[in-house]
C-alpha cells in the first residue's frame, strides 16, 4: 500500500524588494527617461537567444510537488491586466536540491514583475482567476536545456500548498 503524501502549507507574504532580495528583484514602474540604476532588472541572457512571450495559464490550484531552476539565465515574469498572483521560491545554491526550510511563498501584485536570479528555485505562477496571461523573458531553449526540477514526493513524500 502506498503511503499518503503529506501537505505542508506555505503562507504567501506580500512581496517587497527587501524580502525578495535572496531570490531576485522586484521591478516596478519608474519615470520615463530615468537613468539605469539598481532598481532596474539585472539580466543574464548572454547564454542564448532571449525569448519574450506571453503565456496563458489556466487555474491549477495552489499545490505543488516539484520545483525548478534555470542555471543559464535569469527569468522575468509578470501578469498582464493587473492581476495578483503567487509564486514559491528557494534561494539558488550549489546543491541539486533546495532546502525544505528555505522554501517561501510570495503574493505578487499585478503592477510589477519579478526577475529571478540565475539558479533560483521556483514554482508557479499560481492565481485564483480562471486564467491569467503572463509575460515571460528567458532564453529560447530554457525549457529544453536549462530546466532542472526536484520532486518532493519522490524525495520526502511531500507536497506544498500556498495559502
Walkthrough of the structure:
It is globular, with a radius of gyration of 16 Å. The protein has helices at 17-20, 142-145, 152-156, and strands at 6-10, 12-14, 24-28, 50-58, 63-64, 66-69, 75-79, 82-90, 104-110, 112-116, 121-126, 131-139, 148-151, 158-162. The protein has a domain at 10-27 and 49-139: Jelly Rolls (Sandwich). The strands form 4 sheets. Strands 3-10-7-12-4 form a 5-stranded antiparallel sheet, with no helix packed on it. The protein has a 4-stranded mixed sheet with strand order 2-9-8-11, with no helix packed on it. With 163 residues, the chain is mostly beta strands. The mean pLDDT is 96. The protein contains 3 helices and 14 strands.
Give the topology, please.
Layout lengths: L5 E5 L1 E3 L2 H4 L3 E5 L21 E9 L4 E2 L1 E4 L5 E5 L2 E9 L13 E7 L1 E5 L4 E6 L4 E9 L2 H4 L2 E4 H5 L1 E5 L1
Parallel strand pairs: 1-14, 2-9
Antiparallel strand pairs: 3-10, 4-12, 5-14, 6-13, 7-10, 7-12, 8-9, 8-11
Amino acid at each position: 500500500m502506498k503511503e499518503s503524501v503529506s501537505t505542508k502549507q506555505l503562507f504567501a507574504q506580500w512581496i517587497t524588494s527587501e524580502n525578495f532580495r535572496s531570490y531576485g528583484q522586484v521591478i516596478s514602474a519608474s519615470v520615463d527617461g530615468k537613468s539605469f540604476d539598481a532598481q532596474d532588472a539585472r539580466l543574464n541572457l548572454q547564454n542564448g537567444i532571449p525569448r519574450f512571450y506571453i503565456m496563458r495559464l489556466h487555474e491549477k490550484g495552489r499545490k505543488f510537488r516539484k520545483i525548478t531552476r534555470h542555471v543559464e539565465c535569469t527569468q522575468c515574469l509578470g501578469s498582464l491586466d493587473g492581476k495578483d498572483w503567487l509564486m514559491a521560491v528557494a534561494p539558488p545554491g550549489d546543491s541539486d536540491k533546495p532546502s525544505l526550510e528555505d522554501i517561501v511563498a510570495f503574493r505578487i501584485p499585478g503592477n510589477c514583475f519579478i526577475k529571478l536570479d540565475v539558479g533560483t528555485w521556483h514554482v508557479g505562477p499560481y492565481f485564483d482567476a480562471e486564467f491569467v496571461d503572463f509575460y515571460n523573458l528567458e532564453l529560447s531553449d530554457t525549457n529544453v536545456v536549462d530546466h532542472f526540477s526536484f520532486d518532493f514526493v519522490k524525495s520526502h513524500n511531500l507536497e506544498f500548498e500556498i495559502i
